[in-house]
C-alpha cells in the first residue's frame, strides 16, 4: 500500500554532501575500463558516479545492502523492497578537474507510483547539482530515476521485459561483464547492494537470474562506446534508461548512431534491449 500523501510530503526535500574528485578512485575506474590513466586525461567516463558515495555506518545498512530507509531522509521510506536505478539525464555544463573539491546538492523532484508489467513500483526522481566547493557555476547536473519494485512473487525467477532496439546502429562494440568487474564497480562506488555480488541473495530474495549489472556501470560502458564512436568530440548531454536487467556472464552489445550533434545509443543482452541512451555532442 503506497501512501501518496507521504510521498507528496517528501517532494522538495534536499540534502548536501561534499567530496573530492580523488585521482586514485578515477584511476581505478579507468583500470576497470582496461586503461591506464593520469590526471591530465581528465575525468574518465561518468567518473562522477564514483563521487559522494553512501557513507552510512554499518549498523544503518539494511538486509539488501543499501542504507536503511529513513522517514526523515530525502528519499521517502518506501516499503516496496526491490530498488533499481532506472535512468539518468545528465548535463555536463563545466569541467570537473581531477583533485577538485566538490559539493553536491540533491533534491527530490518527484515520487510517482506506477503499475507495469512487472507489478507495482514507485519512481523517485532526484535532481543533483555538482559545483566546486569554492562556489561558482554548476559543473554537472543530473536527474536520476530510482525505482522501488514490489517483492518478487515466487516460485520461479522474475521474467525480464523483452524488447528490441528501435533503430539500426552504425557503430558496434561488445563485451562480457563478469563477477570480478561487478565486484570492482561495487567497491569503487561503495554500493553494497547484494544483487551485484551475492548470487544467492539476487536469486532467492529478489528473483534475478544472476548477478545484476549496475545501471551506472552499464551506462559507463555505453558512454565509453559513445566516446569511441564520436572520435573525441566532447559530450554535452547524456541520458540513459535501463529497460531490462543484464546479468553477469552475458554478451553485451553496444550500438550507436551519430547524426550531426545527436547520438542514439543502445545496449542489448542475449534476450534483447537492456538500455537506451541519447547524447548531444559539441560541434564536429
Ligand atoms: C546502482 C543501483 C541499482 C542498479 O543498478 S539496478 C540495475 C540497473 N537497473 C535495471 O536493470 C532496471 C531495468 N529495468 C527494468 O527491469 C524495468 O524497466 C522495470 C523498472 C522493472 C519496469 O518494467 P515494467 O515492465 O514493469 O514497466 P512497464 O514497461 O510496464 O512500464 C510501466 C511504467 O513505468 C515506466 N517505466 C518503465 N521503465 C522505466 C524506466 N527505466 N525509467 C523510467 N520509467 C520507466 C513506463 O514508462 C510506464 O510509465 P507510464 O507512465 O506509461 O505508466 C542502486 O540502486 O543504487
TrEMBL record:
Enzyme Commission designation: 4.2.1.153
Taxonomic superkingdom: Bacteria
Keywords noted in UniProt: Lyase
SUPFAM superfamilies, per database record: Thioesterase/thiol ester dehydrase-isomerase
Upper taxonomic lineage: Bacteria, Pseudomonadati, Pseudomonadota, Alphaproteobacteria, Sphingomonadales
Source organism (scientific name): Sphingosinicella soli
Keyword Lyase on entry: yes
Molecular function via GO: (3R)-hydroxyacyl-[acyl-carrier-protein] dehydratase activity
A Pfam short name: FAS1_DH_region
Name used for this protein in its record: 3-methylfumaryl-CoA hydratase
InterPro entries the record matches: FAS1-like_DH_region, HotDog_dom_sf, Mitochondrial_HTD2
Ranges where the FAS1-like dehydratase domain occurs: 77-139
Region (Disordered): 1-23
Amino acid at each position: 500500500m503506497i501512501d501518496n500523501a507521504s510521498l507528496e510530503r517528501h517532494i522538495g526535500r534536499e540534502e548536501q554532501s561534499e567530496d573530492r574528485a580523488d585521482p586514485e578512485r578515477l584511476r581505478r575506474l579507468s583500470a576497470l575500463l582496461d586503461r591506464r590513466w593520469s590526471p591530465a586525461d581528465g575525468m574518465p567516463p561518468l567518473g562522477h558516479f564514483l563521487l559522494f558515495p553512501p557513507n552510512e555506518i554499518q549498523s544503518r545498512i539494511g538486509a539488501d545492502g543499501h542504507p536503511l530507509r529513513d522517514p526523515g531522509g530525502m528519499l521517502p521510506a518506501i516499503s516496496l523492497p526491490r530498488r533499481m536505478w532506472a535512468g539518468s539525464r545528465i548535463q555536463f555544463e563545466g569541467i570537473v578537474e581531477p583533485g577538485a573539491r566538490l559539493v553536491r546538492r540533491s533534491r527530490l523532484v518527484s515520487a510517482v507510483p506506477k503499475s507495469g508489467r512487472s507489478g507495482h513500483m514507485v519512481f523517485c526522481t532526484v535532481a543533483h547539482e555538482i559545483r566546486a566547493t569554492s562556489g561558482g557555476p554548476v559543473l554537472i547536473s543530473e536527474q536520476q530515476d530510482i525505482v522501488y519494485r514490489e517483492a518478487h512473487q515466487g516460485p520461479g525467477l522474475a521474467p525480464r521485459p523483452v524488447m528490441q532496439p528501435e533503430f539500426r546502429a552504425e557503430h558496434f562494440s561488445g563485451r562480457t561483464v563478469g563477477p570480478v568487474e561487478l565486484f570492482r564497480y561495487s567497491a569503487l562506488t561503495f554500493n553494497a547492494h547484494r544483487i551485484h555480488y551475492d548470487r544467492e541473495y539476487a536469486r532467492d530474495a529478489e528473483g534475478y537470474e544472476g548477478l545484476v549489472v549496475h545501471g551506472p556501470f552499464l551506462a559507463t560502458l555505453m558512454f565509453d562506446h559513445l566516446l569511441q564512436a564520436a572520435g573525441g568530440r566532447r559530450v554535452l548531454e547524456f541520458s540513459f534508461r535501463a529497460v531490462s536487467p543484464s546479468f553477469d556472464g552475458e554478451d553485451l552489445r553496444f550500438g550507436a548512431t551519430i547524426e550531426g550533434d545527436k547520438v542514439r545509443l543502445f545496449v542489448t543482452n542475449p534476450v534483447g534491449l537492456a538500455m537506451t541512451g541519447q547524447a548531444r555532442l559539441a560541434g564536429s
